[in-house]
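Hi C.,

You asked whether I'd gotten around to modeling the 252-residue construct. I have! Everything is below, sequence then structure, no commentary in between.
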Amino acid sequence: MAQSVVNILVVNSKGGCGKTTVATNLAAAYANDGKKVALFDCDRQASAQHWVGARGLDLPSIDLYQRPEPTQIDQGAMGQYDTCVFDSGPGISTQPSLHAEFESLLRLSDVIVVPMLSSAWDIQAGEHFVTQLMTQRVWRAAPKPIAVVGNRVNGNLAGQQKLQHFLSCLDVPAVSQFRESPVYAEAGDSGQGIVEMKRNRAARKEFKAWHTLLGWIDEQTLTATSKRLPAMPLAASRADRRTNDDATTERA
């Protein structure tokens, strides 16, 4: 994976879609790539806290920020990490305090990952959430790349086709799909990421899907970084050439 700083927001307004599963596996993947990783557990269920607590000492360390107040997160503290993963609480909310928290996380993030199940109900709820997200004032002021990942995919072809059709209408990519497999519960209970379970056959079947998601995140991050690099003004470059020419003349 590329060596660039990335802040990832994992979010969906619907519960039970697997936000913590995606967030913890992303944190583990980047930690195993040698990155210094922070996991911000902003979900009131605090599931990520239990996952970090179960991690063995032989696994790469991940710094946990338990139930931080999103509006108070110090960007300076984030700067000491290569990767920050935000396991979000509720997404867009009518409650002012929760809405302010969500807006803060949007500002802090570089990319947004939306886990979604492929049932008709989940697609309907996901459609509503992504549409709201893309019309939200903070996102519209500074758009961030959004990707949907299909979670707990169980061979429901009709559901997957509906999900793909919905996303194509919004121009949002469905980057990866993760199978419905007991290995995810095993990983959660043991504080591991799927990519760390190299001896587990079921986990190895999921490696490609996770590397696909990681590749998309890195590609978006590199694109954003290149856009932020200032170009040298043409006048300055010409001045530099004149200075170099003068110096050459003097030496002659």
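If it helps when you're writing up: The radius of gyration is 21 Å.

Thanks,
B.
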